[in-house]
Every structure is written in C-alpha cells, then in structure tokens.
Sequence to fold (324 residues):
Amino acid sequence: MRLSIVRRASLTTAMVALAACTANSVSRVAYEQTYLAGRYNWSFRRHFPNANRLLNAFDYGHAALYQTLITRDDATARLDGPDFEFITRDLLPNPPNLPIDEAAIGPDYAKLAPELVALFDWAHVLHRQIYDIWSTSAYTDERRDAEVARVLTYYRSRADLALSARPKSMSLMESQPYSRVFRQRDPKYNGLLWSYHWFQLALYDALITGRTERQLQSEVDSTVQRFFLMIADAPRHMPSEMPMAPTAAPIFASRYPEAAVVFDNLHALHDVVADILAAPRVPRSERRAALLAAAAAYRDDSTAVVSLDDWRRMARMMASPERR
Fold:
C-alpha cells in the first residue's frame, strides 16, 4: 500500500515536471498567427489588384536571393545575370495572384533561420493590414488612425517576432565586418531590392493622399509606373542608398512614426541578412548565429538606438544627392 502511494506520488511529480518542461518549450516556439480581424481586410487586394500582385512578387525576390547566396558558389554571376533578368523581365511584369510561400522558394534559407522567415512574414502582415485600412472607403481618417493603432498593438503582441519601433543607427547595417558586401558584389539585384522597399513605403503616401476613388487609383497607378521606371535600364534609375520612410513616404512617417520605424528596421535587416550570407568572412558554420544576432539587435529597444530627430536627419542624408 505504502509502496503504491510512493509510486503514484513519483508518477505525479514526473508528470508535473514534464508538463512544466513542455510548457516552457512551447513558449519558445514561434507559432503562426493570422491577420487581425477587421472589416478592412483584403481591401487593398480588391481595389488595387495590380499593385497587390507586385507585392506578391517581391516576396519571391528576397527568398530567392537568400537561397542563391546559401546554395550557389556562382551566386554573383547568377544574381546580377539570369536571376535579375528573370525577375525584371518575366516575374514583375506578370506577378503571381497570391502570396508566395518563401519556404518553398528558399528551403535551405528557411531551414537555416526559420525564425527570420517568421519575423519577416509578421512584418509583412503589418504592411498589408495598413494598406487595407487606407484602401477602404468606409472609414473616416480618425477611424483609420484608430485601426492603425490597433494593428500596431497586435503586431507588438508577438514579442518573439516584432521588430523594434525605436530607430536604429545605420552602423548596424553599414559598419559591421560583413557590411556592404552584397551591394558591392551585386549592385543591380541590390538596387532591385531597394526599389521594392521604396515602392512599399511610397504606397502609403499614395493611399493617404488620395481623397476619392479616382484619386486613389491615380496615385497608386502612378506609384506602380514610377517603380517600373526605376528598374528600367538598371541600375541607372534605382536607389543608390536604402530608401527610408521620412523621405520615401514623408506623410506616412509623420502620421505613423512608430510603424515607419518598424519598416525601416525591417528593410535594414533585409540588407544585413544579404550581407551576412554574401560575406566570405562569415563562415558557413557561423551564419546562423550571425543572422540571429542581427535579428535580435533589430528587435530589442536598446541596441544602437537613436532619436526620432536623428532618424529623420539620417533619412535626409541618405537621400541627398551627395550620397548618390
């Protein structure tokens, strides 16, 4: 009888310990999460299908880049050669109707750093939801502001994935041992990605500026046309520095500085990932650690933080003709 009680007690203790261990493990897993529910969801896709399809194609560009850098010894020859030609001549003029699964395009990249795939996906959800909010005609501007605040709160609820809303010094992107390697080796593909980032930001000002359905369509169509002019005759018309929100989307950055900072941090991290994967001085065995360290630096609120005023000055400096 006593032995049976001891055995039952030991079993109970083991089960409690296992449950605690399982709970701790689950809390460290980055689970998928969908869009915040709202009447505005999918408004951008309904009203601006051409621009929306371009965004789907952009996801391919980043995943294909990282996959090529990881798996190909001839990455530079491919990226500024046939890969660039395929994207600019085939994919972007005929973009997919639905978002692309980045893990399907870059399986080795997804296996190397699934945390990064989830982090980028979560920021892209925030992008899409703000587009949707400003694409619906059912809301006043005050209601739109409230909904943007709500989706930002939802975004921050994933502390394991959310990028910091504090501006970061460009030293994180420009002054590391691996910095600038990718843009120097593959200037056309790098310019293509910076054109993507300009488009994603400029869309916000187009949506905020348009007051009627006709004006909205005209503003978005104009942004699409300007993007295609950017990537024509590459890299002559492409951005020569990373576009930043205060200059690429000044109305949006003024109205929603927190969201604008998140997207600047997102775009900078995209550049850092490309540099890490392209840099010969980062051994393959150290790539994952370097990627996760960079992601952590852009997620925390303490590393290389600058003021909003410094962020705005930095954006003006990056856009100045002297930097080009």
Q: What stands out?
A: Residues 34-323 form one domain. The two ends are 84 Å apart (CA to CA).
